[in-house]
Design a protein that fits this description.
Helices cover 46% and strands 0% of the residues. It is mainly α. It folds into two domains: 83 residues; 77 residues, no CATH class. The radius of gyration is 33 Å and the shape is rod-shaped. The chain starts with 15 loop residues before the first helix and ends in a 23-residue tail after the last helix.
């Protein structure tokens, strides 16, 4: 009896062992024209086995790359995309650098400080006063979403001064929204219907 553990390793398991056997079988074909014909036939089989990939950009290109990978890059056929090198698939991906944004107060994100900088540059006016109030109100909402508890308005105004280098101050005539106004509403729990003692028509016995 033949066990999978004793068989050669499946390079791309998604295509199955039969496809891999076909790939290795055409490597031995000496006639290049016949080898090219068989390779195109295998590509069609691979495409039919993975129809969900047809919407992927460069679908055919990926199939040809997989064909060469399953042959351990030993297959010599005329690919419409050229034969890839083994080294190109063994290269390690570039390291993704960490963000260098120095966020002072992370619960406000990195966009809010940029908005604060724009408001600082505005000329003094009633419109600017309203903008400062909206910023502070949004900061309170953001903080509550992170902390999910009550918060002192004085702390929000202190954070506003910290983020604006003490260049913005909310007018005393404005008042930040109350906690109950901006607290996320909890979804009501569905009541479980008790089916005990009911007949098939929904009436109690």
């Amino acid at each position: 009896m033949e066990y999978n553990t004793s068989l050669p390793h499946l390079i791309i398991p998604e295509y199955g062992r039969n496809v891999q056997k076909m790939v290795h079988s055409i490597i031995e074909i000496e006639d290049r024209e016949k080898r090219n014909h068989q390779a195109k036939a295998i590509i069609e089989v691979m495409g039919n086995l993975n129809p969900h990939l047809r919407d992927v950009p460069d679908f055919k290109h990926k199939l040809w790359d997989h064909l060469f990978i399953m042959s351990d890059f030993g297959l010599d056929v005329d690919s419409p995309y050229g034969k890839p090198s083994k080294e190109s698939f063994e290269e390690k991906p570039l390291k993704v650098p960490y963000s260098e944004n120095n966020i002072k107060l992370r619960y406000y994100g990195k966009i809010l400080p940029q908005i604060i900088e724009r408001v600082v540059e505005m000329e003094e006016s009633d419109h600017k006063d309203i903008m400062v109030f909206c910023l502070a109100n949004h900061m309170k909402k953001s903080y509550l979403m992170w902390n999910k508890s009550t918060v002192d308005d004085e702390m929000i105004l202190k954070h506003l001064a910290q983020l604006s280098d003490s260049k913005l101050e909310m007018k005393a005539s404005f008042k930040l929204s109350d906690f109950v106004e901006i607290k996320p509403q909890e979804k009501p729990q569905k009541k479980q219907q008790n089916n005990r003692g009911r007949t098939q028509h929904g009436k109690r016995k």
